[in-house]
Amino acid sequence: MAPKRVDRSARREEILSAAVRVFARQGFAATRIEDVAAEAGIAKGSVYLSFSSRDDLLAAAFARLADRSAGVLGHTTAEGVPAVERLTRLVRSAVAMLADEPELTRVMVDLWAAGRHRGDAAPLDMATVYREYRGAVAGLLREAAGEGDLRPGIGEPEATVVVGAIEGCLVQWLMDPAVPLAGLADTVVGVCLSGLRSDGAASPPCPLPAAPVPVTDTGNGPGAGRTQGPSGA
Amino acid sequence: MAPKRVDRSARREEILSAAVRVFARQGFAATRIEDVAAEAGIAKGSVYLSFSSRDDLLAAAFARLADRSAGVLGHTTAEGVPAVERLTRLVRSAVAMLADEPELTRVMVDLWAAGRHRGDAAPLDMATVYREYRGAVAGLLREAAGEGDLRPGIGEPEATVVVGAIEGCLVQWLMDPAVPLAGLADTVVGVCLSGLRSDGAASPPCPLPAAPVPVTDTGNGPGAGRTQGPSGA
Amino acid sequence: MAPKRVDRSARREEILSAAVRVFARQGFAATRIEDVAAEAGIAKGSVYLSFSSRDDLLAAAFARLADRSAGVLGHTTAEGVPAVERLTRLVRSAVAMLADEPELTRVMVDLWAAGRHRGDAAPLDMATVYREYRGAVAGLLREAAGEGDLRPGIGEPEATVVVGAIEGCLVQWLMDPAVPLAGLADTVVGVCLSGLRSDGAASPPCPLPAAPVPVTDTGNGPGAGRTQGPSGA
Amino acid sequence: MAPKRVDRSARREEILSAAVRVFARQGFAATRIEDVAAEAGIAKGSVYLSFSSRDDLLAAAFARLADRSAGVLGHTTAEGVPAVERLTRLVRSAVAMLADEPELTRVMVDLWAAGRHRGDAAPLDMATVYREYRGAVAGLLREAAGEGDLRPGIGEPEATVVVGAIEGCLVQWLMDPAVPLAGLADTVVGVCLSGLRSDGAASPPCPLPAAPVPVTDTGNGPGAGRTQGPSGA
DNA sequence: AATGAATGAGTTTTCATTCAT
DNA sequence: CATGAATGAAAACTCATTCAT
């Protein structure tokens, strides 16, 4: 009845987009294949022409998210741009990406929830996605430290916090649309880079006898000359 | 046959704990009432003596999480303690709370995912929980600013970032147990208060000799012991 | 709604019997689980309390048939009965068994059809059932030959014919209820034992130059003394 | 794209042969139109250009089998040949026919199973086929009795046994390819004509120098070469 | 109170058949 | 004629919930 479809992968994309919209609206668990088909304007059975199963659809949604994430990480390699600037761009584009496709954000949380419970392997390997995410940010932070813009001793833990701040803000926005997403990227950057302390007041309120916090040196004087070359060791 | 139950609410708690364990293991979507019953060591039908429905079980898990969160927010009202320190305690106890009940933390993501899609009643009002969470943190930040420890002009957006950093770190730990949860609380505080710039003091938070919440070691497998020193580029 | 069932395996038997009735009426392929449930007077889902899947039901039907067959084979071991007599009983009871449960006969054909197409193994191993069937008959034939009632040189091929005659008659009765099943057992025995030739006329119409038929000796004289002892070697 | 089909009925035959091959391999119940199309090397929809439905395909397979059977029955009318010999030829050609088209034989069982359950039209009237089959054999038996080769009083029941022996042997061969089909025709004739008693002549059928049907060797794997000599009890 | 058999609505998935190209 | 995407009516199977015991 419906006219014959020309492009197989175009149809696949259409269905996937429809699926993501429905996932965002109802969540994975509450989404039936029929809902996806209805959203795509096709018959239930037709979904199976493009996806072999419901799980296949989930995996594709994951892949799409991973793909978008990879796009964001592209900002880490811009040439001739200070690492701090690249980090700012990265944060901004991460937020912008998801703000552009709010559905993906909603799906993201579902993926977090679904990412567990399948020890198998490939399809929903959120751990790897975030590992790479953190790795990229950590690399940027170390570069920036090398360039003198950030203090030395920065590594994975700090990257975890930066990545966490981004994702955590997105989650809050998701839970509560009243949270202003616009501007949050800059706030994240501002807070993470400059902290919240009174300006210039580098006064640690107290020493650190046995704190588990991994900080090697305290107050290492201001401005350590800005090296701009490629992530010099 | 089984001896009569002593306490109704004790039984309810037992079942809820069993449910949370199973939710954490399999996710809410994949958890059947029978799984919960088996975990609790009772018969399927008996679950309904304590909970009116499957969703009621999820709502109860939410309530437990909300309860724990309320406990964490108690730190904001300590008398005679600088706001900055109260904030530090808040962050630490938030992380410690979830590290203490990893199952509940895992369920948290399911709750995020389930929190939407039920406009009718509001058994899972995650928005309100996080609104209060942010409000408390924002209040603390403003107090600290008033005490001169933080720069002025700090408000909700910054609170969103702080809260986001906490939750975002937890999510990463959930996705990937190799992420070292221990120490992340202090890293969050350190990053958020002092920032990462080279001109900011990498001040660790004050050690808390009598921390109100026992920061149990989460023993997150390998990688838990982090490399200090500048992890050279 | 329905009263609680006391005996698990009794219920299983009930369902299996209902299933066999429906299989007989409609055939495997055309039988839906719901049909079986309706025949058993229970709800669709209740079938799954006793059988894990539709295939499990098929396997059980097969097992029941195999069980009945085993019962028939019991006649081969009667003590103090000439092998020829035991053979007669075997044939009669094989026919009687299926005439008693016409449903099973119909199912049998479905099993023949289903027995193929699953190289796997166990559940529908019709080959083994018939191998044993033939083996038992062949043993009986050899015994009878040893007792002097049948001519020597009789073996598996003849057993195949005897078994085939039984099954083939049943199939014809199945295809066409007008075929008189009663009496067929004796006809089978009569034909197979005495042949159809003119009485006593042992006149072979022609010699056997290179016929592939495995006959070692021709016309070995009449009556070789009847040994009645237990299957003497 | 493909060159225009020369002959409608040739195409129909091609598809039917493909269908029979697939039916034999998977059974009718498990065979999808697409499987048949694939086996025939055409597109799914094209099957419908030659057959009106899936059932039509089965009916056509039945028709082919009925056609082959009719061919076999042709042996009953040979002029100037003793009825006993015509019977022998009939049995031999029945077996040879099916051995020649093993796929069709395998489908036969499916047809037995499917022959029931469709009272409406009568596309699969197995009853009639076997009725005619029996009738022809019975006629032959009576003729042979008239010619003095068989004892008098022989009729339908005996014909049922003879036909049954043939079909029953074929079924056993289908269930278990180790059953030696070659030679079974002669064993059937031998057993049915002379019986197995020691006072019966174990007369093999007359060798047929110019057998009308080429008894191709079915080469049924191991066990095909049977052990002659009395396999002692 | 506790149990677990029974229920049946709800979902996924398959596949015969149609028909626009 | 040939094709294969599209359709939607089945059918298997699941599982929350009920309720007789």
Automatic annotation (TrEMBL), chains A, B, C, D:
<keyword id="KW-0805">Transcription regulation</keyword>
<protein>
    <submittedName>
        <fullName>TetR/AcrR family transcriptional regulator</fullName>
    </submittedName>
</protein>
<keyword id="KW-0678">Repressor</keyword>
<dbReference type="InterPro" id="IPR001647">
    <property type="entry name" value="HTH_TetR"/>
</dbReference>
<dbReference type="InterPro" id="IPR039538">
    <property type="entry name" value="BetI_C"/>
</dbReference>
<keyword id="KW-0804">Transcription</keyword>
<dbReference type="InterPro" id="IPR036271">
    <property type="entry name" value="Tet_transcr_reg_TetR-rel_C_sf"/>
</dbReference>
<dbReference type="Pfam" id="PF13977">
    <property type="entry name" value="TetR_C_6"/>
</dbReference>
<keyword id="KW-0238">DNA-binding</keyword>
<feature type="DNA-binding region" description="H-T-H motif">
    <location>
        <begin position="32"/>
        <end position="51"/>
    </location>
</feature>
<dbReference type="InterPro" id="IPR050109">
    <property type="entry name" value="HTH-type_TetR-like_transc_reg"/>
</dbReference>
<dbReference type="Pfam" id="PF00440">
    <property type="entry name" value="TetR_N"/>
</dbReference>
<feature type="region of interest" description="Disordered">
    <location>
        <begin position="202"/>
        <end position="233"/>
    </location>
</feature>
<feature type="domain" description="HTH tetR-type">
    <location>
        <begin position="9"/>
        <end position="69"/>
    </location>
</feature>
<feature type="compositionally biased region" description="Gly residues">
    <location>
        <begin position="220"/>
        <end position="233"/>
    </location>
</feature>
<dbReference type="InterPro" id="IPR009057">
    <property type="entry name" value="Homeodomain-like_sf"/>
</dbReference>
